[in-house]
UniProtKB/TrEMBL annotation:
Comment on bound cofactor: Divalent metal cations. Prefers magnesium or manganese.
The organism's taxonomic lineage, starting at the top: Eukaryota, Fungi, Fungi incertae sedis, Mucoromycota, Mucoromycotina
Cofactor needs: Mg(2+); Mn(2+)
Name this polypeptide is given: Malic enzyme
Domain Malic enzyme NAD-binding: 324-586
Residues at the active site: 144 (proton donor), 228 (proton acceptor)
Record keywords: Metal-binding, Oxidoreductase
Molecular function as annotated in GO: malate dehydrogenase (decarboxylating) (NAD+) activity; metal ion binding; NAD binding
A biological process from GO: malate metabolic process
Residue ranges of every copy of the Malic enzyme N-terminal domain listed in the record: 121-314
Matching Gene3D superfamilies: Malic enzyme, N-terminal domain, NAD(P)-binding Rossmann-like Domain
PROSITE patterns named among the record's database cross-references: MALIC_ENZYMES
Keyword Metal-binding on entry: yes
Amino acid sequence: MPIYGLTITQRSISSRALIYKALNARSISRLFPNRSYSFASTMSISKQTEVEKSPTTKDMATSPYYNQGITLSEASRAKLGLRGYLPSAVESLEKQKERALIMLRSKKTSLDKYIFLAHLRNTNTHLFYKLTCDELEEIAPLIYTPTVGEACLNYSNIYPFLAPPGSSDGLYLTLNDLPNIEEIIRNYRPITGQSGGFSPEIAVISDGSRILGLGDLGVNGMGIPIGKLQLYVAGAGIDPRKTLPILLDLGTNNKKYLEDPLYVGLKQTRPDEDTFYSAVDKVLAGLHTVYPDLLIQFEDWSSEHAFGLLNKYKNKILTFNDDIQGTGAVILSGLMNAIRKVESESKVAPKDHRIVFYGAGSAAVGVATQIQEYFQTEYNMTEDEAKKVFWLVDSKGMITQDRGDKLANHKVYYARDDNNGKQFKELTDIVDYVKPTVLIGLSSSTGAFNSKVLSRLAELNKQPIVFPLSNPASQAECTFEQAMESTNNSVVFASGTAFPPYTDPKTGEIHVPGQGNNMYIFPGLGLGAVLAHPKLISNSMIYSAAKALANSLTPEERGQGWLYPSLKRIRAVSADVAAAVCETACQENLARSQIITNLKTHDEIVKHVTANMWSPTQDTAADTRQDVYQEANS
């Protein structure tokens, strides 16, 4: 938080300091007596050349963050020169949320609700996140999967209506921008009143080449970085002013968009490999020149590029790929609990599992890699023993070394060499051959887990584990209802998208499906990385995050057979995940935050993590601003 050339790096200092004129350290201590700061260790000279400015009257009326609508008291309106800007009523944030919820629920389609919520976020940040945090189970599917898929498909049509004029939803970069990349990044200031003070902590970047299961959407994929960062805020309390959505527009190979007169992206095909990697190199170099401590999350890149970029940068900069590592961690967590469940109830030993992946892209291989690490770590299996637990299936069938086609690099490791020349294409034949205990779908093949496949699994297993993980819902391999009906309610189930509960028509019993939502992992992982400030995000940190999630269920949740905790507890879950990341970073001597390394116990770290979560009620109350002025002027 730059204040007259000084940066307070302790995240728990409230950004109310932005609202009043710059104060010295002594004044800050007087204003926030219940918070402790070590100014010698937490203040450094700001790298910004401009002095951060207090929000002006215009900022308070128009900035999405500083705009508080009619929550401002009469006295504050007078003090700020805002009389006449607002109706006479003075309402609480809770009352404003009530009105917003009524309007949201009056919208007829999910896309209309998405547009409403986007406009709300771009006009009143605090109200948007108050609504999102309080009603997360209702809002999350509207701001991310499954609705974000529809929003991306229509992004060029809805883009002008997502925000008021002059408000930016994210940073758009193209090949043509590369010669001036640092200047463009420095000039991007999304929130008025933050001149010289924009200092993002987390960026989510995509090139739109593989959006969910929808393919190459080009610039229309911007909905993904935006959506992810909204979940960082709601799920882990990342300050929304410290988020940076980025779409690297390198063109598109989607003929539909190249011929669409309303498409808002570059109308050219994607570049060759050398040009691609050179462009990404320059963008990342520019980002780290301007923001050296920035955590960069790669999201929805084509499989080959996703692995290529992760392998190139994971040991060089603070980065991770959520499709590979985040998906792997969240599915590993659910599978840990599923394996515990069937071991306890059906006496299936962990080492006896046989896992079929239907789909062999970056997400599938990422998941398999982390599950393999789990078997090796927890059950002392050798690498070769753990590797042989998996059978991967792509569009050509079961992946084997002697199938006769050239395998993509990321598929080679799990190609089977013990098939004795047998090749299988149909999933029903593969199930008969492998006799799997676990079936995981990451294929975007709607209905691939049909009743024949599911019924056969139920014949083979007392409690078949089925994870249809493809997003959005229209791409899922099966629904929860189909899985329950085809297995006589015996399935242990988790999906990648939300499905409604299933009511047993015979007993009336309600069964709630698990959802392997990456939201359980990446917000806490990101927050932990921001607080510990490690040199890199290690495989051990990802594994620790998955294990912390698996262990975060309450006794009540386990008693109901759940594989994942309630989303209503997402902040507490994210705190556990973030703390696990911080602890592992310290154990590996990767943490560079002196504050984190000085904390001695798990409980101290959890308390510190929780204290550094941004809240929708932070910096909102009219009397907060009034008190600040009174204190500053006393």
